Amino acid sequence: MMRSLFSGVSGLKTHQTRMDVIGNNIANVNTVGYKSASMSFQELMYQNTSYAASADNDTGRGGINANQIGLGVRAGAISNSITTQGAAQTTNDPFDLRIEGDSFFIVNNGSGNYYTRAGAFYVDGAGNLAMKTTGYNVMGWQADEDGNLASDLSALKVMAPENMTSNPEATTYARVLGILDKDGAKLNAENGGQAVDIQVYDDLGYSYTCKFKITPQKDPVTGNNIDGKYTIVLEDIIDSKGDTLGASNFLHDVENTNGAYDPDSDAFDKSQIVFGDSVVGTQQFSIEKRVKDATTTYVVTNKNGTTETFTEASEATAYFNKLTGEKFTIADVEALADNTPSVKEYRVYGYTGDTGLLYNTTDGSLKSIGGMLKEVNMNLSQIGGKDAFKDVTVDFSPSSNKSNGGVPTIEGKAGDAKGHHAGKKVGKMISLSVDSRGQINATYDNGNSRVLGMIATATFANASGLEKQGENLYAASLNSGEASVQEIAANGEKMSNGTLEMSNVDLSTEFTEMITTQRGFQANSRIITTSDTLLEELVNLKR
Length: 543
What we know:
By secondary structure, the protein is α+β, with helices and mostly antiparallel strands. It is built from 5 helices and 37 strands.
């Protein structure tokens, strides 16, 4: 009878333990990423009242089984349904992540790694991606400025100062498109010409507006407009504050190879044209000493072929310097051999030949620009004091020259037809997102985007062998195996953002288990009360 009492007690304790497991499951029915547990029972031990005996062939007696009386029950194992996926809960928070598969997120508390299925993350005050509940850092591979992922696992710092902005880009391509209306009132030179603006960016992300004017070219004999032929000139470059860069900085087409030149010199052809190859030819200037009848003169020949004669070497030197910027001294001029010119060559910028837009008179389509078929180079890199500018290739082929009721639609746009090479300002981060591979992407207000890092995941040979640590965390154990760390796509799995994995607790199953547990507890309590009654009867035998 004492055995039955203790069996009943062990039954009560074991069913109470099972009830504890069920109660924990139900308590965590709304815990993100919680995996339900179940408990299996195991016999405690047995007492043999007699042992088994084998059959005796000599006497003809058969074998006898052992007589064993059980002494109760105990908890055999408590296992977690860790591979069963919980339902998805939509949150629309971009850093709420759900793993579709068997992998685990890796988080670190500063001293070691833990593993979790609860993907409720946020960006903390230090810019790190972390768990909302514990603040533990989410681990992964950080990316450099070019989007290349590091090989070592580290805490993901997604809002580091260097990630908050995106580098600017200089404009390198533009288009002029629309109709240059033959009958447009502004087209004629007396009305100021047809304005065309192209907005460009320099390497530092500052924006500028290149202001061009288109005017008809005229027949030198009749003075009438030449059909389909126009001159396009750069009149000004305005920065974002409305200030001009100054005509002397960009209205030139000659540069001295050996020194500075005077951009205000009338001897220079400031044609206001910056289209064409950056260097297209050379121009010669010369100075010579002439001696006749003991009289010395100095002759300077400028680039237009005209000459100037001086009797003083100093005057000749000053005029030559004004033309070319060459560092010529009086001694150099006086030392010239008689009647032998000193010739210098200088680079000529702009382009040679046709200096404007030429359209087909039959259909109004573009025939050429500066002698080029469709595209021409705009030499902004030659602008004085603005090394950050890049040369811009301008495509004029989308433009045409025809009648449009006096309404011109011609305009300039930076970038090609797909918007590439238009240049960009310094970008400010406007959003972060995580894709299905766990890759963290930043988007900037200048249109750029870049990879900031990738979230790492871990798998285990025996995930059910992980030890629960509370706070939705697991730790590796001797029976779980070592963590295999890799990107989630390597396992054919993926992440979903804006959703969380809910608890996989099935309430209908838990309530059923609770009923059977209650009945088992109740039955074991009856063992104790019945045994107590038997003991009472035994005690009463003494009366």
